[in-house]
TrEMBL record:
It comes from Alteribacillus iranensis. Coiled coil: none annotated. Transmembrane segments: none annotated. It comes from the Bacteria. This is Putative mono-oxygenase ydhR. InterPro entries: Dimeric_a/b-barrel (IPR011008), YdhR (IPR014910).
Length: 109
């Protein structure tokens, strides 16, 4: 079963294309994390909030990444990190065309 990790935190920037240029190397490194499947980067420059929605193969992989990433963000001086791990209701997600069906097929077997 796949698991979602949701991470949100405040940051002064950069955002948009500047963020994409600044964090491209970090984005590439995330692809190498154990059990990582995909990430959606999120941002709101108006509230200075950013983060991501990640999908991992296992809860253990999500927990390991959450621990490492929280420490990394803290080393950058980022505080008040909101990170949560969720299981996926694949039946309802499939109805709403969520991009996780191929990762949650075992839920239905």
């Amino acid at each position: 079963m796949a698991y979602v990790l949701q991470v949100n935190f405040k940051m002064d920037g950069p955002f948009g294309e500047d963020m994409a240029a600044s964090f491209a190397e970090l984005a590439e490194s995330i692809n190498q994390e154990e059990g990582f499947l995909w990430k959606i980067w999120i941002e709101d420059p108006d509230t200075k909030e950013t983060g991501g929605i990640y999908l991992f193969e296992t809860k253990e992989a999500a927990q390991a990444y959450q621990e490492m990433h929280t420490k990394r963000l803290a080393s950058f001086g980022i505080e008040e990190i909101d990170a949560k791990i969720f299981s996926i209701n694949s039946t309802l997600t499939e109805i709403n065309k969520g991009p996780v069906t191929s990762f949650t097929q075992n839920d239905k077997e």
